[in-house]
Amino acid sequence: MFKRFYEDLNPYLKPNNVLIIYGPRRVGKTVLLEKFLKETSLKYKLNNGDDLAVQEILGSGSIERIKNYAQGYELIALDEAQNIPNIGNGLKILVDHVPEIKVIATGSASFDLTNKVGEPLTGRHLSLKLYPLAQLELLDALTRYELEEKKSEYLIFGAYPAVLTLPTTDEKIEYLRELVNSYLLKDVLALEQVKNSKILLDLLRLLAFQVGSEVSLSELASNLGIDYKTVARYLDLLEKGFVLINIRGFSRNLRKEITKKSKYYFYDLGVRNAIVSNFNPLNIRDDIGKLWENFLVIERIKKQEYKKIYTNNYFWRTWDQAEVDFVEEREGGIYGYEFKYRNKGKTSKQFIKSYPKAKLEIVTQENYLDFIV
């Protein structure tokens, strides 16, 4: 068992409010919920959103039936809540009409949970996002030295909890292949408009080889034989399904800056490597720069989420190829980071010239833990 950052949910639970825990499939949302319920003193009811009887009651819109469902309990816990029709309205009735009730809902499809729940529960819900294990969570069980020793494992196999507990390389690879083929795209493919898993996987393969580079939607559309708008819609769904993260270009309206393109990173490097079927050791790979950049970006985003660092994230690049890998806009300041795996290199003089008040730092194998934990 790994200790998660949100191990204790009590600070986030409020009467007549819904706590939403969401994130990719298989990252440990159910385990986190069950562990909390095992230790809580609250009288609770736990149901799964796949249960037809629960779907029927909470999706009914009936105040009386939903009140009867919650009667006698202090806490209602719903796992896989996105599978319940009209879940937002059902939760609204719960918190509006059952005095002092506390509610926890977990789900893996952000486009269902946040969109369906957000509007009905405006001002009456709190959302926590759970990722594959963060380096700052692993630091609870490992020393900094041990974490650095295992760095290559995280770059190759990612950080899904189950992967980190499997004893052999073959078992890790098999788990990740199964994750990609059976679970990863399940939420996206569940939508009526998306029926072709092959195109989605082909799109993800193209993006896997372009980690750290600006992506052209028209070029992707041409390679896949589909139209531009379809590519844009698929990318949006893959973001909402916790497969990809989109980073936009940073600009203060200087004409030479690239702003309209995006970079895409994977929530988990094990998933990325499974998509391209490459689990080779780092010393014989030609994509180590991409892995290093993706690793630092996603781990930094996990840190921002868990430590409540409120920031806008960008990359910076000009038409004459000056670049900074990652830019944070926070607390009225601009902070640039350049990622170097093999050597320290030099910082971008053009970035500092363009933004004299900005701070710029190089992140290497020597100092990366300071950046992400």
Report the major sheet. Answer: 6 strands, mixed
CATH architecture of the largest domain: Orthogonal Bundle
Strands ordered across the widest β-sheet: 7-6-8-9-10-11
- Quickly count the helices: 18
Structural class: alpha/beta
Which segments are poorly predicted (pLDDT under 50) over 5 or more consecutive residues? none
Q: How many structural domains does the protein architecture include?
A: 2
Beta-strand proportion: 15-25%
Task: Report the top-level CATH class of the largest domain.
Answer: Mainly Alpha
How much helix, percentage-wise, in residues? 40-55%
CA-based shape: globular
The counted number of beta strands is 11
Mean pLDDT: 92
Report the CATH superfamily of the largest domain: Winged helix-like DNA-binding domain superfamily/Winged helix DNA-binding domain
Per CATH, what is the topology of the largest domain?
Arc Repressor Mutant, subunit A
Keywords: DNA-binding
Protein name: AAA+ ATPase domain-containing protein
InterPro entries: AAA+_ATPase, AAA_14, DUF4143, P-loop_NTPase, WH_DNA-bd_sf
GO molecular function: DNA binding
Textual characterization of the structure:
The chain has 18 helices and eleven strands. It has two domains: 10-129, P-loop containing nucleotide triphosphate hydrolases (Rossmann fold), CATH 3.40.50; 135-372, Arc Repressor Mutant, subunit A (Orthogonal Bundle). With 373 residues, the chain is of the alpha/beta class. The model has no long low-confidence stretch (mean pLDDT 92). 38% of the residues are buried. It has helices at 29-39, 52-58, 63-70, 87-97, 110-118, 135-138, 144-149, 151-157, 161-165, 169-184, 186-189, 197-208, 217-224, 228-240, 269-275, 288-307, 349-354, 368-372, and strands at 17-22, 44-48, 75-79, 102-107, 125-129, 244-249, 262-266, 312-317, 323-330, 333-339, 359-363. Helix 13 (217-224) crosses helix 14. The longest helix has 20 residues, at 288-307. Keywords: DNA-binding. Pfam families: AAA_14 (PF13173), DUF4143 (PF13635). This is AAA+ ATPase domain-containing protein. GO terms for molecular function: DNA binding.
